[in-house]
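Annotated sample (chain length 191).
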Amino acid sequence: MKKEGTPSVCAVCGGAYYSPPSHRAKRRACSRACRAKMQSEWQRKDLAQRFWQKVDKSGDCWVWTGALLKTGYGSIRIDKKAMRAHRVAYEICVGPIPDGMLLRHSCDNPPCVNPSHLLPGTTKENVTDAIERGRHLLGEDHPGAKLANASIADIRRDLASGMSGVAVARAYGVSDSHISKIKHGKKRRHS
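Output written by the structure step:
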């Protein structure tokens, strides 16, 4: 009885094997051992050569076509450690990222690895960029928000009129520490 699948030839050892229909496009090795050998050889290639093979430079944004994280950023393995693709691109083309800095995308496109779209900056600058561009959920739009924007204005008015934080907390059904954080600008500064 013939096995189901497509007859294929292993890219590593040259042996014949059947590639099941579900793996036809992805599978290029006959066994786990051959796949591990192929992966090992791939990771020993020059980093720049290996990196740029996974980049589509057809548009203004150079899009990473390799593995993506849930956040949409590209990922590449270097010395058995996963690294963000945009950081690797910056280090290949520009140089090391300054200590304590992260890279901000001027194009707001997480898979973009174009070094001219990457700017070193602080976390505060990155958050400010996200707020200005509407990519950061604020106030009642945030899934963790306990109070509506209108309630925040009422709470601030009640606190300004001399009402105690504990009384305001009871009135709105939240903890007094939550009210204290609103009062001191540690929560809901943008509401």
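Annotation: DSSP finds seven helices and eight strands in the chain.
Annotation: The two ends are 70 Å apart (CA to CA).
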